[in-house]
Amino acid sequence: MAFVKDPCGIVCVLITYMTVLHADYVVTHWIILQTMPNSLWAPFHVVAFNTIVFLLAMAHLKAVLLDPGTVPLPQIRIDFSDLHSEKNYGHEREEWTMCTRCETYRPPRAHHCRICKRCIRRMDHHCPWINNCVGERNQKYFLQFLLYVCALALYSIFLIVISWVYPCEDCHTDVSQAQTRMMHSVLLLLESVLFGLFVIAIMVDQMHAILYDETAVEAVQQKGPYRIHRPKLALLAEVCGRGHPMLWMLPCTSLNRKHHDVPLLSHDV
């Protein structure tokens, strides 16, 4: 478990939950219960919408609190005078690098995050919306979070449009309630469109990084794909887990523990 004490990240996390709770409140109270009170679709939409909210919260919490793949610090300080010596401490020089800020060796594709102040394995970027780095061990949950936000935005837009196209003929509400519902609906519509487009752009970027095996940091450094001939499905399975693809979008499904429990670094270097 990890939590980065970054003020910007904490504010973004609070904004995320306030936005989701506002969407849940508007959809449940002002759209479903006000426009389809006598329909069998009402309980269906309430259960379906809140199920997506629950999965979104689970994925987001795991992306926020799980260790993204922090490289452990050595128990003793490294003598930097040995950096240019003939010793390689059992690691290939073109693979393992040294971080002068953490004062430790780091494995391939690990990069230092100035906000987390640690080196992260297969670091893609530091995301303030999860107040954490997107790395080897939590990228799956970050991708799930993006998918559920997109699904929630599309579902909200769908319900708002349905409530406008097929208004409730038997619902006798006063003018003030109708105006309040319209105000909440318009606000949620704008919110869903803006966040939906923003999340889709990030999700496309994440899928490109996974399928082409090139993180955002590596793209900036113009290193190119890490493994050119690696199959796309195998690259996706490395992030989402070795289980059945139908289980990849469940936040309760853990990653391949055998692969991720390998020690990141020996303290004997």
Automatic annotation (TrEMBL):
<keyword id="KW-0472">Membrane</keyword>
<feature type="domain" description="Palmitoyltransferase DHHC">
    <location>
        <begin position="94"/>
        <end position="222"/>
    </location>
</feature>
<protein>
    <recommendedName>
        <fullName>Palmitoyltransferase</fullName>
        <ecNumber>2.3.1.225</ecNumber>
    </recommendedName>
</protein>
<feature type="transmembrane region" description="Helical">
    <location>
        <begin position="186"/>
        <end position="204"/>
    </location>
</feature>
<dbReference type="GO" id="GO:0019706">
    <property type="term" value="F:protein-cysteine S-palmitoyltransferase activity"/>
</dbReference>
<keyword id="KW-1133">Transmembrane helix</keyword>
<keyword id="KW-0808">Transferase</keyword>
<keyword id="KW-0012">Acyltransferase</keyword>
<dbReference type="InterPro" id="IPR001594">
    <property type="entry name" value="Palmitoyltrfase_DHHC"/>
</dbReference>
<dbReference type="GO" id="GO:0016020">
    <property type="term" value="C:membrane"/>
</dbReference>
<keyword id="KW-0812">Transmembrane</keyword>
<comment type="similarity">
    <text>Belongs to the DHHC palmitoyltransferase family.</text>
</comment>
<dbReference type="Pfam" id="PF01529">
    <property type="entry name" value="DHHC"/>
</dbReference>
<feature type="transmembrane region" description="Helical">
    <location>
        <begin position="39"/>
        <end position="59"/>
    </location>
</feature>
<dbReference type="InterPro" id="IPR039859">
    <property type="entry name" value="PFA4/ZDH16/20/ERF2-like"/>
</dbReference>
<feature type="transmembrane region" description="Helical">
    <location>
        <begin position="145"/>
        <end position="166"/>
    </location>
</feature>
